[in-house]
């Protein structure tokens, strides 16, 4: 297993920072196409850029990217009050993707478990807690509709992320991706 120290070393390379900045810009653009269903449910695909960063550069850069994108997206297009808990959730999502995908072969199983971990711990537990705190609604009231969304979107998001990551690994030169295929 690759260490956090090795992932942190990715920050030293200007090339990696430039690609991470492009992923942040892409994250913001993709964020404009988020579908809002009611007050507490959003369907979006910004997780793709965080997953890509996790695969390419590991948990450190992916976590930093997640937090940065959360704040940046709030500044560009606020959809409610700023709440630091959501930033923490974004950091943890990037960190989790990095733990599962950095320097490891991309398989549907690995992508599924990365996404499942994010869904359970970040989307269902943390984000539902933040929404409960922010809007004064009971956790148990918010959970069923968020759980339904998670059950529907998990296979869709897994498939899309898997296809994107496989395409990136297919077209990148071996020096660009630090994984052995």
Automatic annotation (TrEMBL):
GO molecular-function annotation terms? transmembrane transporter activity
Q: Which residues cross the membrane?
A: 14-35, 47-76, 82-100, 112-135, 147-165
Q: Which residues form a coiled coil?
A: none
| Keywords, in A-Z order | Membrane, Transmembrane, Transmembrane helix
Extract the NCBIfam families matched here.
Answer: ECF_S_folT_fam
Query: What protein is this chain from?
Result: Folate family ECF transporter S component
């Amino acid at each position: 297993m690759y260490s956090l120290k090795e992932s942190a070393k990715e920050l030293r390379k200007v090339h990696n920072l430039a690609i991470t900045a492009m992923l942040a810009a892409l994250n913001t653009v993709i964020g404009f196409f988020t579908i809002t269903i009611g007050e507490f449910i959003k369907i979006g695909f910004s997780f793709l850029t965080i997953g890509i960063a996790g695969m390419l550069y590991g948990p450190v850069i992916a976590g930093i990217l997640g937090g940065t994108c959360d704040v940046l997206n709030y500044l560009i297009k606020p959809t409610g009050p700023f709440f630091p808990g959501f930033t923490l959730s974004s950091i943890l999502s990037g960190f989790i993707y990095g733990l599962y995908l950095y320097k490891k072969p991309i398989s549907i199983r690995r992508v599924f478990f990365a996404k499942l971990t994010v869904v359970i711990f970040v989307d269902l537990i943390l984000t539902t807690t933040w929404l409960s705190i922010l809007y004064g609604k009971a956790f148990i009231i918010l959970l069923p509709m968020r759980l339904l969304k998670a059950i529907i979107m998990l296979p869709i998001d897994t498939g899309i992320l898997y296809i994107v990551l496989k395409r990136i690994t297919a077209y990148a030169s071996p020096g660009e991706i630090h994984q052995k295929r």
